[in-house]
Fold this sequence. Notes:
Shape: elongated
Largest sheet: 3 strands, antiparallel
Number of helices: 3
Structural class: alpha+beta
Radius of gyration: 37 Å
CATH architecture of the largest domain: Alpha-Beta Complex
Strand content: 15-25%
Number of domains: 2
Helix content: 55-70%
Order of helices and strands: HHHEEEEEE
Number of strands: 6
Low-confidence stretches: 13-17
Strand order of the largest sheet: 1-4-5
Amino acid sequence: MTRKHKEEETSEAAPQAEETAASPAEVAALEEEVGKLKNALLYERAELENFKKRTEKRYQDSLRTAAEALAKDIIPVLDNLERALDHAGEAEAIAQGLSQIIDQLKSALSRHGVEEIAALGQKFDPNLHEALAQIPGPEAGMVLAVHEKGYTIGGRLLRPSKVLVSVVAQ
Length: 170
C-alpha cells in the first residue's frame, strides 16, 4: 500500500467515526439507563439479603418448634420425677438416683434453650404464671407456692407456672 493510499483510508475513517459518535442527548439517555440498571441491581441484591435473613429466621423457628414439642413431652416426666423425689423419704439411694436423673433432664433441656421460670416469692405475672388459687398472705399479688414449675424456650413461654397467689385478708 502506498503512503497516499493510507492517508485516504485514514481520512475516510475519520468521517465514519464522527457519524457513529453519539450526541449529548444520546449519551445522557444511556447514562440514565445505566443508572437505572445500577439501582435495579442494588435493589435485587438487597432483596436477596432479605430473603436470606427470612430463610434463616424460618429455619431457626422450625428448630425451636421441634425442640418445643420435645420439651412439652419431657417436662411432665421431670415433674413426676421431682414428685417421686419429694416422697422418697428415707430411702437415700432412691432419692440420690432420682436427683441425678432430674439433674440430667434439666441439663438436657437447658442445652436446648428450655429455662425454668422463677416463681416462688415473685410478684404474680399473668404472662408467666397461672393462678390456681388465692390464699391469705402478708402482701397481695405474691406467689406463695408453686404447684407446677413453668418453663420458657428461647424466651417464649412453653408452660406457665401453676401457682398459689397471696391476697390480703380483710
